[in-house]
Amino acid sequence: GAVVSQHPSRVICKSGTSVKIECRSLDFQATTMFWYRQFPKQSLMLMATSNEGSKATYEQGVEKDKFLINHASLTLSTLTVTSAHPEDSSFYICSARDEGRFEAFFGQGTRLTVV
Amino acid sequence: AQKITQTQPGMFVQEKEAVTLDCTYDTSDPSYGLFWYKQPSSGEMIFLIYQGSYDQQNATEGRYSLNFQKARKSANLVISASQLGDSAMYFCAMREFNTGFQKLVFGTGTRLLVSP
């Protein structure tokens, strides 16, 4: 149990376009999901906390208008990178909490390359 | 504010030996949880072990054990009988249970290489 599915696993897009990444909890409901960004050989940096039915809470320094987060249901959160630039190229990974468990469960991650 | 520190950027160990990965933390919340995750080159995050701040005994999960020293605010991961498949990045993380969304914050990670 407690499976989180993230899609797509890899995406290449052109500068100026938008990319949507989906994060789904497959066998549990998640009122809260988290989005992280990871640069090569670095740690996971929390970008924002996604709350079902309300606005996301962004960490300091994260551009809300560039990284749009929508948590429309208890099993789906989406991250949209708008007007992507090459510096947005990174590994994005989501996690979700099953309220009955201590640990967070992670999606497989999305490697975004902006050309 | 919660903080996690991993001071070992890289560690080497021979197969079948034990290795300890260090983690120290800082928090003012008396109720918190400490986690270790493994990240192989594929990028997925694999949960290894959990220790709660009120747990009296050190957590163990198979070959993984957590050396929890609360007074020193350390939560070191011990991997016994290392295997080649243990080569990966290892992240220590913490969640404060009395703060807002209980977000999980990570340390900088330790790259473990297991040699034959």
Give the tags:
heterodimer, A: 115 residues, mainly beta, 7-stranded mixed beta sheet, B: 116 residues, 4-stranded antiparallel beta sheet, 53% strand, globular
Would you write up a description of this structure?
The complex is a heterodimer of chains A (115) and B (116). In chain A, strand 7 (67-73) and strand 8 form a beta hairpin. With 115 residues, chain A is an all-beta fold. Chain A is 0% helix and 53% strand. In chain A, the strands form 2 sheets. In chain A, strands 2, 4, 5, 6, 9, 10 and 11 form a 7-stranded mixed sheet that branches. Chain A has a 4-stranded antiparallel sheet with strand order 1-3-8-7, with no helix packed on it. By secondary structure, chain B is an all-beta fold. Chain B is 0% helix and 53% strand. In chain B, strands 2, 5, 6, 10, 11 and 12 form a 6-stranded mixed sheet that branches. Chain B has a 4-stranded antiparallel sheet with strand order 3-9-8-7, with no helix packed on it. In chain B, strand 5 and strand 6 (46-52) form a beta hairpin. The N and C termini of chain B lie far apart (41 Å). The mean pLDDT of chain B is 95. Chain A binds chain B through residues 32, 34, 38, 42-44, 46, 49, 51, 57, 91, 93, 95, 97, 102-106, 108-109, 111, and chain B through 33, 35, 37, 42-45, 47, 50, 52, 91, 95, 100-109.
Mean of residue pLDDT of chain B?
95
Q: Beta-sheet strand percentage of chain A?
A: over 45%
Q: Can you give the helix content of chain A as a percent range? A: under 10%
Number of extended strands of chain A: 11
Oligomer: heterodimer
> What's the end-to-end separation of chain B, in Å?
41 Å
Helix content of chain B: under 10%
**Gyration radius over CA of chain B:** 14 Å
Tell me the fraction of residues in β-strands of chain B, as a range.
over 45%
Give the N-to-C terminal Cα separation of chain A. Answer: 37 Å
Mean pLDDT of chain A: 93
N-to-C SSE series of chain A?
A: EEEEEEEEEEE
| Parts with pLDDT < 50 across at least 5 consecutive residues of chain B | none
The biggest beta sheet of chain B is recorded as:
6 strands, mixed
How many E-type strands of chain B? 12
User: N-to-C SSE series of chain B?
Assistant: EEEEEEEEEEEE
User: How would the global form of chain B be characterised?
Assistant: globular
Q: Radius of gyration of chain A, rounded?
A: 13 Å
